[in-house]
């Protein structure tokens, strides 16, 4: 096997791309991306320790976010760029280590650090050699590998949004710190339960800050939808709206995604679809009609507006005096493709959402045992046959 990548929904046989990515990613690029993540883990180990006595520069957090973003699906196949990020990362790692050596740090810290913090290559040839041994297959236990992948992919998704926010002038130290915490956790010998705790924290991002106001056709975050709140509440009370189905997420090229078009077509006319992200392109051209002037497809915007759907659900819960979001007449039937959707899934878990469908397939990086844990803890299930899924969602399952 020359490479191993199982981070997206199109991974070969839903288990892993091992020769060349279905996306076109080469073996060299895949391995260099693994090495970049390895270097980021080393930075994180030193960075967290420096953070204990002085704040590390935000530029280091931003570097981690940019580098993780460079490794998400279809973001960057430029080997020279990945190599230059690895070199920059090695420099940062060295500076952080020197800072620690310049102050009085417990000897045990340096006695217990893993290879990702200690590794310093002599030249770029060393990069290629090392890259072959530091990917996900280096985690030998499949369940541990599965959870560590889940954490890293969640961090990648967060990084895509964090990098974008930084370009717009908004940065959160808390997010950068968590990226280091998540990466460092994947270097430790943690149990399944301990990793589950880290995974839960991965979904706890500070809410986004509104950068501008405006209106566009098709929705603009939660404001457009909340403007209809009173009408919506009234329609629920009078029984004109029976259920909301959240069909957010990613689109993709596979025929299996027609499932979402078919669900949208077959949902009863007294249901409302709440959407965000490009999943909507599977059904937003259908003539879905309205319920007393409320469009049956309410669009919160792009995938980074998915947080708006949680706000909408919380506002509806307030209106109906419900404390548990899961008691609302609301079902989640979400499509995913890459790692931003993993971050959003984790954010939904963190918001207390349970009982959701995920398609067109469950992530290939989930082992059967870890998929079972997700079912038990969050009632996540794969999509099935359209009419059966609709029947189940309408009855609250
Ligand atoms: S990003 Fe997806 S398609 Fe590309 S190599 Fe990884 S798993 Fe395969």
From TrEMBL:
Its EC number is 1.7.-.-. SUPFAM superfamilies: Prismane protein-like. Keywords: Cytoplasm, Iron, Iron-sulfur, Metal-binding, Oxidoreductase. One of its GO terms (biological process) is response to hydrogen peroxide. It comes from the Bacteria. The keyword Zinc does not apply. It is an enzyme of class 1 (oxidoreductase). GO terms for molecular function: hydroxylamine reductase activity; iron-sulfur cluster binding; metal ion binding; peroxidase activity. Gene3D superfamilies: 1.20.1270.20, 3.40.50.2030. InterPro entries: HCP/CODH, Prismane-like_a/b-sand, Prismane-like_sf, Prismane_a-bundle. This is Hydroxylamine reductase. It comes from Candidatus Scalindua brodae.
């Amino acid at each position: 096997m020359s490479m191993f990548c199982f981070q997206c929904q199109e991974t070969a046989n839903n288990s892993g791309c091992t020769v060349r990515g279905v996306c076109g990613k080469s073996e060299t690029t895949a391995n260099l991306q693994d090495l970049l993540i390895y270097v980021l883990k080393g930075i994180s180990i030193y960075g967290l320790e420096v953070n204990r006595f002085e704040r590390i520069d935000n530029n280091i957090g931003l570097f981690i976010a940019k580098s993780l973003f460079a490794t998400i699906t279809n973001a960057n196949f430029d080997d020279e760029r990945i190599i230059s990020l690895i070199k920059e990362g090695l420099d940062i790692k060295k500076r952080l280590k020197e800072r620690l050596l310049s102050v009085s740090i417990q000897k045990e810290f340096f006695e217990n650090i893993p290879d990702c913090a200690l590794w310093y290559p002599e030249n770029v040839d060393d990069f290629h050699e090392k890259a072959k041994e530091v990917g996900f297959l280096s985690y030998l236990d499949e369940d541990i590998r599965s959870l560590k992948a889940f954490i890293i992919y969640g961090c990648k998704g967060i990084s895509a949004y964090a990098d974008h926010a930084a370009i717009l002038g908004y940065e959160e130290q808390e997010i950068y710190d968590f990226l280091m915490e998540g990466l460092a956790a994947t270097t430790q010998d943690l149990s399944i339960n301990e990793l589950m705790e880290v995974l839960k924290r991965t979904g706890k991002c500070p809410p986004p800050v509104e950068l501008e106001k405006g209106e566009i056709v098709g929705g603009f975050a939660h404001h457009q939808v909340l403007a209809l709140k009173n009408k919506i509440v009234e329609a629920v009370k009078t029984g004109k709206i029976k259920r909301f189905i959240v069909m957010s997420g990613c689109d993709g090229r596979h025929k299996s995604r027609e499932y979402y078009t078919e669900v949208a077509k077959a949902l009863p006319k007294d249901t409302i679809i709440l959407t965000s992200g490009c999943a909507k392109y599977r059904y937003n051209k259908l003539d879905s009609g309205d319920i007393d002037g409320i469009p049956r497809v309410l669009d919160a915007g792009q995938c980074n507006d998915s947080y708006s759907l949680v706000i909408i659900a919380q506002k509806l819960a307030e209106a109906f005096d419900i404390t548990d979001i899961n008691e609302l007449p609301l079902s989640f039937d979400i499509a995913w493709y890459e790692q931003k959707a993993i971050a959003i899934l984790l954010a939904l878990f963190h918001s207390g959402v349970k009982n959701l469908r995920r398609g067109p397939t469950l992530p290939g990086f989930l082992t059967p045992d870890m998929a079972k844990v997700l079912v038990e803890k969050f009632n996540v299930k794969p999509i099935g046959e359209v009419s059966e899924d609709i029947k189940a969602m309408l009855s609250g399952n």
